[in-house]
Structures are given as C-alpha cells and as structure tokens.
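The instructor's notes for this session suggest beginning with a concrete chain rather than abstract definitions. Hand out the sequence below and ask the class to guess, before any prediction is shown, which regions might be ordered.
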Amino acid sequence: LTPALSISESLHGLEHVDTARNALTLAYLYEKQGRYEEAKSLYMRACAIAERILGENHPSTRTFRANYAILLRAMGHEDEASALEQGKEPL
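After discussion, reveal the predicted structure:
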C-alpha cells in the first residue's frame, strides 16, 4: 500500500468512505500504469467498503462500480463488467 492509503486507514479505519476513496484513487493510478491486477484488488476493496457504508444504490457506490467496470473491460472481462453494472457480483 502507498503511504497515503496507509495514513487514511490509520486515521479513519479500514471501513470508512475516505479510505474507500483513497483506494479508488490508487486503483485508478495503477490502472493508468497498466498494473491491472493491483488496480483490480483496490477497486474491489473500494466497492466493498462503499457498499457496506453507503449502500448499493448510493451515487458514490455506483461511481466506484462504474470505474471498476471500466477496468474489467480493459482487462477483457466484459461479462464481469456487465454483471457489476447490473448490481451483481462479478463472476
């Protein structure tokens, strides 16, 4: 983990929306660097936190899931991306 994410976890805890946002930001950076597997695990984590804290239909949760779906498509996982967008767990 990066120092920023570690600090967020220390300050806010593992189950906080700011920690989820920091994980999402790091996932996006990894995605842009082509570090897809690292990005995927962070997107999954951010989505899971958002769903537990904010609920499945919260706008931020939907945004997190949409960003994760973009990564899944970039990785060639269309079925997983579609399932995620429909509110289902990726395959």
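Then share the key points. The CA atoms of residues 17 and 50 lie 6 Å apart. The chain has a mean pLDDT of 87.
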